[in-house]
Design brief:
Helices cover 25% and strands 38% of the residues. The protein has 110 residues and is α+β, with helices and mostly antiparallel strands. The chain has one domain. It has a four-stranded antiparallel beta sheet with strand order 1-5-4-3. The protein has a three-stranded antiparallel beta sheet with strand order 2-6-7. The protein is globular.
Length: 110
């Protein structure tokens, strides 16, 4: 089974009722950064550990997919693992949060 691209994964995550909380300033994703599923605002959150400390990227607050087994925690763990894998492989270089058609989005360049 073919895994979705990073762009498709992020777009789907944002569209699935998550909250992107990344600052609007662009950032360089570097190999020393670590992505993991943590807690922010009392919810499972994809977090990046940088030299400036932990920064939540996505707060997983939508329960719509829980009945199919994709709970916020499971989505958090899956996406966080993929972010780390892309980062480790040098495929995650730039991130910026913004708004598109009234929805919060997270733009990524590899």
């Amino acid at each position: 089974m073919r895994k979705p691209s990073l762009g498709a994964l992020v777009a789907a995550a944002i569209a699935a009722g998550t909250s992107a909380v990344l600052p609007s300033q662009p950032s360089q994703a570097q190999s020393r950064n670590q992505f993991f599923c943590g807690i922010s605002q009392g919810k499972p959150s994809t977090v990046v550990r940088t030299s400036r400390g932990n920064q939540p990227l996505i707060v997983w607050n939508n329960e719509s997919f829980s009945s199919s087994g994709w709970t916020p925690k499971r989505r958090c763990e899956e996406v966080s693992t993929r972010f780390q894998r892309f980062n480790d492989n040098g495929q995650l270089r730039f991130m910026r949060a913004g708004t598109f058609n009234g929805h919060k989005v997270l733009c990524i360049d590899s």
